[in-house]
């Protein structure tokens, strides 16, 4: 196989920066060697240059920073066209914008068009893996997986399960949701780089029978993902308590049906108590922190200190279309501010870890993505410290890695992404026209 190589600044991780001062592995003059879609060497140029095969073309990008591809752990592709829709809160936002928009995914052509734009936008922002909500329509998942497969992007996605408290035109049943999900698992899970997620939208829109059926599927397929929402909004939490009397908490409902485990990812996790956080830590379920969405919908502030004390796995997410940007850099920006409002300083180095290696580890994908380690899939992003005039001016004065990463996080967006690579293949270059696969 032909080697490709990239000489640039390199950043990867060997642990959580909150727990180790040596967790960030940075090479100011680094070399990344890729072959057959995987990393075969990564480290200091001086130490690795002799490993280059004869004739290997080296891309010289010493003024740029290569980081692992970003991982977005909670995003709704059907909400692409309704991003930035005004509403006074979560529940009216769902009724006014979300449900009518998702109805359009009855049309396979509309689903395919949206999926194509969605994957384009992820790659333009440096996101190479995402956990994605589709709609209740089985074809919406097929459309996304087909688009992702054509780009050879590692994607985790699922058809939404929703059999009550939603418009009739978006309603499935416990049985049809089970059947459709089982069929999609058979067709897509572990097919190439595609992986399936059982996706009850959130407890209020599923009957006990549907949650039970989802739990059965989870037991039948122990390596599939599970994704839903929990404790996002005070009105939602109150509603859930009325719909599910007798449960200790909102999270306890999912636990009751066997939906807390490794590879289970719950969006928001704002209004949890100590027992909830302990239970998530115990089961390995992941809290997906969605700061731009939480601020946009006025939902509340995620508590990093409480999560850390409990040992609860945490990752970052955009939550488009409640979230207001596809960019994980912009998501870091808001995550830092949310943390500050709760008295927590979230370093840029840790934010980059949460969006790469930390997320991969929490998702049981640490041997595949989120890293530049030898043997990993060659998903990486080339960031440009001069991506905007302001970034260039600020970074000319940076005196540490933390300052550089902080500038990217607080000032960066898709303009800071020079190139994105998926499985070793160039998938996006800034300024290049988007071309259909």
What is the approximate shape?
A: globular
The proportion of strand residues reads 15-25%
Number of helices: 16
Percentage of residues in helical conformation: 25-40%
Q: Low-confidence spans: pLDDT under 50, at least 5 residues?
A: none
Structural class: alpha/beta
Q: How far is the first residue's CA from the last residue's CA?
A: 23 Å
Q: Find the count of extended strands (DSSP E, 2+ residues).
A: 16
Radius of gyration: 21 Å
Mean pLDDT: 96
Largest sheet, in brief, is: 9 strands, parallel
Question: What's the SSE blueprint?
Answer:
Elements: E1 3-13, E2 24-35, E3 38-44, H1 45-48, E4 57-68, E5 70-76, H2 90-103, H3 108-124, E6 127-133, H4 138-151, E7 154-158, E8 160-161, H5 174-188, E9 194-200, H6 208-220, E10 225-230, H7 234-243, H8 250-256, E11 264-268, H9 274-283, E12 286-289, H10 291-296, H11 304-310, E13 314-316, H12 328-341, H13 348-354, H14 357-362, E14 380-383, H15 389-395, H16 401-411, E15 417-422, E16 425-429
Parallel strand pairs: 1-4, 5-6, 6-7, 7-9, 8-9, 9-10, 10-11, 11-12, 12-13
Antiparallel strand pairs: 1-2, 2-3, 4-14, 14-15, 15-16
Helix pairs in contact: 3-4, 4-5, 5-6, 12-16, 13-16, 15-16
Characteristic terms for this protein:
alpha/beta; nine-stranded parallel sheet; 437 residues; 16 strands; seven-stranded mixed sheet; single chain; 16 helices
């Amino acid at each position: 196989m032909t080697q490709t190589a990239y000489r640039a600044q390199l950043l990867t991780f060997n642990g959580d920066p909150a727990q180790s001062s040596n967790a960030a592995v940075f090479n100011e003059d680094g070399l990344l060697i890729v072959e057959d879609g995987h990393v075969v060497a990564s480290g200091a140029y001086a130490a690795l240059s002799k490993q280059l095969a004869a004739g290997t073309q080296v891309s010289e990008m010493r003024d740029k920073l290569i980081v692992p591809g970003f991982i977005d752990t909670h995003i709704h592709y059907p909400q692409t066209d309704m991003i930035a829709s005004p509403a006074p809160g979560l529940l009216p936002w769902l009724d006014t914008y979300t449900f009518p928009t998702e109805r359009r995914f009855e049309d396979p052509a509309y689903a395919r068009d949206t999926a194509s734009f969605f994957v384009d936008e992820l790659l333009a922002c440096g996101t190479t893996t995402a956990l994605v909500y589709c709609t209740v329509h089985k074809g919406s998942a097929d459309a996304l997986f087909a688009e992702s497969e054509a780009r050879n992007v590692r994607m985790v996605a699922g058809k939404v399960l929703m059999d009550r408290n939603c418009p009739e035109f978006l309603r499935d049943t416990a049985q049809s949701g089970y059947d459709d999900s089982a069929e999609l698992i058979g067709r897509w899970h572990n097919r190439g780089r595609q992986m399936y997620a059982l996706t009850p939208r959130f407890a209020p829109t599923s009957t006990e029978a549907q949650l039970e059926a989802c739990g059965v599927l989870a037991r039948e397929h122990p390596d599939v993902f599970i994704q839903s929402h929990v404790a996002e909004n005070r009105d939602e939490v109150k509603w859930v308590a009325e719909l599910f009397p007798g449960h200790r908490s909102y999270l306890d409902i999912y636990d009751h049906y066997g939906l807390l485990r490794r590879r289970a990812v719950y969006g928001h996790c704002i209004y949890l108590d100590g027992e909830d956080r302990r239970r998530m830590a115990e089961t390995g379920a992941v809290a997906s922190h969605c700061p731009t969405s939480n601020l946009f919908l006025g939902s509340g502030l995620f508590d990093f200190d409480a999560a850390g004390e409990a040992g609860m796995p945490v990752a970052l997410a955009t939550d488009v279309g409640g979230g207001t940007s596809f960019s994980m850099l912009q998501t870091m920006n808001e995550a830092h501010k949310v943390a500050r409002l709760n008295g927590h300083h979230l370093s840029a180095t840790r934010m980059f870890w949460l969006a790469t290696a930390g997320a991969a580890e929490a998702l049981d994908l640490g041997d595949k993505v989120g890293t530049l380690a030898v043997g990993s899939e060659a998903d990486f992003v080339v960031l440009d410290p001069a991506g905007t005039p302001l970034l260039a001016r600020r970074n000319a004065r940076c005196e540490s890695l933390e300052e550089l990463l902080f500038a990217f996080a607080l000032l960066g967006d898709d303009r800071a992404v020079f190139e994105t690579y998926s499985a070793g293949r160039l998938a996006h270059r800034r300024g290049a026209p988007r071309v259909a696969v």
